[in-house]
Every structure is written in C-alpha cells, then in structure tokens.
Amino acid sequence: TVLAPGGTNAVGRMLGLLGDEWNLLIVQQALLGATRYSQFMARLPISNSVLTNRLQALVRDGLLEREVHTSTRSRTEYLVTPRCASLWPALLSIWECSPRCCGATAVAAR
C-alpha cells in the first residue's frame, strides 16, 4: 500500500497537511509557544517569503489561526488550533527519534 501525501487515507491526509520540513518546523515552534512572525524568524533559519507562504498555508489548512489585534499598533499572532494541538504526540515522537534515526540534531526552542 502506498501512502502518498494528500491521499484518501488518514495518514496520507496528515502528511499532506504537514507538507514539507518547513511546515513541521513552524508547527513545532508554534506548539512550543511562538505566536508572532518575528518569533518564528528568530527561531528558524527561514526566509521571509518562505515563512509567509507557509504560515498562510497552515492557516488555510486549519492548523494555525491568524488573529489580528488592533490596538495602538497592529499585531498579528498565529495561534495553534485544536487540530494542530492534536498532532503533538505524533510530532513529539518524530522529534525524539529523529537524531537517532537520521543522525541530525533537532531544531530546539530558543
């Protein structure tokens, strides 16, 4: 059985939502407390255009919620949705085993 991203099975749909490594890393940082664009930029070695595109996609797919606060200065936050929070156990397992399986270091919260 082939489990292609975006397929009709649950695993395929989840892989389709998470997309590539940037989406995984952005979701990781959101789950660890990052909410502002500047926080994601400070924590990840990512370009402005890639971060902007990925945040838009994660909002569109219901993993993050974009909330604009209109006070004296406009402030936008990207908040974890219940759908995103439900991924925590699976993602935690991936991040815990990745150094052993891939020989790479995980991106940690700063």
Provide a compact summary of the structure.
The chain is an alpha+beta fold and 110 residues long. It has helices at residues 10-18, 21-31, 37-43, 48-60, 82-85, 88-102; strands at 64-70, 74-80.
Structure description:
The mean pLDDT is 84. This protein has helices at 10-18, 21-31, 37-43, 48-60, 82-85, 88-102; strands at 64-70, 74-80. Helices cover 54% and strands 13% of the residues. The N and C termini lie far apart (40 Å). It contains six helices and two strands. 14% of the residues are buried. Helix 2 (21-31) crosses helix 4. With 110 residues, the protein is of the alpha+beta class. The chain has a two-stranded antiparallel sheet with strand order 1-2.
Report the radius of gyration as a whole number of Å.
15 Å
Order of H and E elements: HHHHEEHH
> What overall form do the CA principal axes indicate?
globular
The amount of beta strand, in percent, is: 5-15%
- Largest sheet properties: 2 strands, antiparallel
Q: What percentage of residues falls in helices of 4 or more residues? A: 40-55%
Helices, by number, come to 6
